Amino acid sequence: MASAANTTPITSRGAMRPRRTERRRTIAGEAARYLGAVSILLVGAVHAQQYYDAYFSYVPTIGTLFLLSFIGAGIVGVALLAPVRKLGRRLGDLILALAALGAIGIAVGTLVSLLVSEYRPLFGFMESGYRLAVVLTFVFDGLTTLFLGVFLLSIGPDLAKTFAKG
User: Fold this and answer.
1) What are the pLDDT tens digits along the chain (166 aa)?
2) What is the pTM of this model?
3) Which of 32, 34, 102, 28 shows the shortest CA–CA distance to 68?
4) Which of 37, 47, 89, 134 is 20 to 30 Å from the Cα of 22, by its Cα?
């Protein structure tokens, strides 16, 4: 049985809505944010390893894209881990939403590029086979997109309300 302290006022349907639901959404969203940050940092780490150790730095255009993926993933990953809400909830949520969208863009971009290069040349380069780096990229790109999509869904209603107020 829920106590009055654990519920909000009666909704238009007459049902009590527990505050715990909102708290669970917040906790799940924050967990997804941190897991997404780790995932995008791992995407960057795979690209850095391939750039420096697998000699992709010598592949025209693709090497530059690997380096940019590493740098971009590092920037958005750190932003997602940083305590930006100390700047204020509104600004902090905006920064986190932009970082999450950037990370999803990087993850989807590298995933699509990898899939294209598996079947036809991309900037003159064609990937062959599913070596460990390719498999890890698939996994971390997918996890980044999933986790940060959940995070964005969790803050979406609050962000929309905040900016609707002006």
Assistant:
1) 444 455 455 555 555 566 888 888 889 999 999 999 999 999 999 999 999 998 888 989 999 999 999 999 999 999 999 999 999 988 999 999 999 999 999 999 999 999 999 888 888 888 887 899 999 999 999 999 999 999 999 998 877 777 777 5
2) 0.83
3) 102
4) 37
